[in-house]
Amino acid sequence: MSYSLTNGEQPDATAEPIHVLLVDDDAQWAKLLATDIEREADSIDVTVTTTARECLETFQDRDDIDCLISDYQMPGQTGIDLLEQIREHHPQLPFLLVTSQGSETVAARAIEAGVSDYLVKEFGDEQVTKFVDKIRRAVTHYRLQDALEESEQRYRTVTEQSRDAIAILRYEQLLFCNERLVELTGQDHEDLTDESIVETSIYAADRTQVRDVLDSWYATDEQSQLHETRIERPDGTIRHCEYTGRQLDYQGEPATLVSIRDVTERKQRERELQWERDLNRTIQETLVESRTRERLEQDVTDQLQRHGYALAWVAERDSDVVVPRTVGGDRRYIEAIDRGIEDCGMNSEPAVWAIKTGETRFLQNFDDRPATDWAEIASGYNYRSGAALPLVYDNISYGVLAVYHDQSGRFDATEQRLLEELADTIAFAIHSQETQGALASDQTVEVTIQLQMGYYLIDLARDGVFDAEARVSGTVLVDENTVIQYLEVDGDPEDGIQDALATHPDIQDVSPISEEPQDRLEVTVSGQPPEARLASQGVVVNTTSVKTNGATITFELQNKNDVRSTVQPLEDRFGTVTVQSIIEREQQADNSRRQVGTNTLTEKQLAALKAAYYHDYFNQPRGSSATAIAESLDISHSTFLRHLRAAQGKLFSAKFG
Predict the structure, then answer these.
(1) Which of 27, 258, 368, 434 sits 20 to 30 Å CA-CA off 391?
(2) Is the pTM of this model over 0.70?
(3) Cα dist. 26→22, 54, 336, 608 in Å?
(4) Where is 88: in which H helix or E strand?
(5) Structural domain 591-657, CATH architecture
């Protein structure tokens, strides 16, 4: 492989001195020849040796030798023997072989050993001219080849280090590429060069446009503007790319240098933001306005159908049959398919399979499935791909959400993630309605209970850690076995409250948040304190006060009849629970809307909102940075902000929407 130099010129052997090493056992002839060559060409310097060994020693001591000239017949070692030794480490160095008489056998052996040229000893001015000409020609070729190889190596180094895929094309034929192009296309070099790269790698719908762009580059040598295309890999995955190119001279003929950058992740983020913004806005409006589970599910499926899905439905299990609860779109497909669960297998309808197994399923192309009745029915209604996502919250199943596209391959990683988050949100909203009663209820029950044991804060109060009392201002569930609680503690912070808390076996970490008007601490706790257990039942905890005589907890219920079922799990874990009061209250006029906004938050969104509030994130100046709060929740900075903004958006919609 060779490249034209960037300036279009070739090295000139006469531009720099040429150092020649001459070996011949006829010292007189060698010295005479050297003198004549130097007189003929000022740029050539000749060093004379008389044996092969002396020649090798001289060659090894110097690094400026550009050409060797050796007599063929020398005592102990021939010129070809010397040539073979030189070629072991210097395969391209110019080497001229000289003999007293021509011989086809010697010439053939010399050529086989890699001699640069072959001369017969003569006398007179013509011999000197021949030597000078052959030296210059051999060195010129050597230096040109060396320059080209160095240029190619620099080019390869640059292209391999580039973050972009680099290709050199002649029309659609790949002549050169770096490793990044191999990674991007998912094909090896042989596959890329066997056929048209447009045909083998470019997404079918983009090929005409790419061919038009390549054709235009052959008509101009100006830098091309940026273009977009898609690359389809052998496994069917699509990569979004931007590319640009320009003409260059490659191996003496016109070609095109193309630089390709993979922008799939950026495109995915852009699409994710837009899709999430549009869909979440309409879905959250639905969650806020819906007052019953039935209304919520119907509004969700209607919104999904209007958002672009050919069909959306929510279903539940009734004995051994999947029963639709609400449908957005044409119901005829649902009514036509077999929704029996008993004989359901891997090739069953996605919603039926998800109901039976509790597993999410994304089918990118119904045509790739084995022939089944449901797939044929789906094809008849022009459904090409589908997904089914279980609606589960706190290990309780509320059915399944199923959606269908009229195109195949539509469920990329972004859409899958967003649908999974949507399913979590819907399940949480249904859970809130099921556990707290109707969202539009105009009454609430305030319950106050007291615990005597089993709570780490009671242990610390009785050990005298607090001067008067400790108050739990908030509880955030990190995972099943870890909870963060925010405490307000009376007493001097220098009294060692933080160190005393850290000694309790249930406490993993203690961090101060503020000292005014009292100590506020963030405490990471193993297991589930009573507030966390209440929250897992959908109960809203208002206050917790802990003194030496126990912990007093006030929380809200929608129904007075739920008190017993709410208290029983606490007694199972913490022993005797005393119900101190049950007070029925009328909610404020706008409280139902405010409560709806809270109920639509996912666990992660609620945790982010609570943590921000208790860390004084909304104060000016802020009490804690977003990075510090994210670290306390063991999530990334960007994830914390995403959950926080989603929570704020839902609450604002509930209040002002």
Answers:
(1) 368
(2) no
(3) 11, 14, 104, 94
(4) helix 79-89
(5) Orthogonal Bundle (1.10)
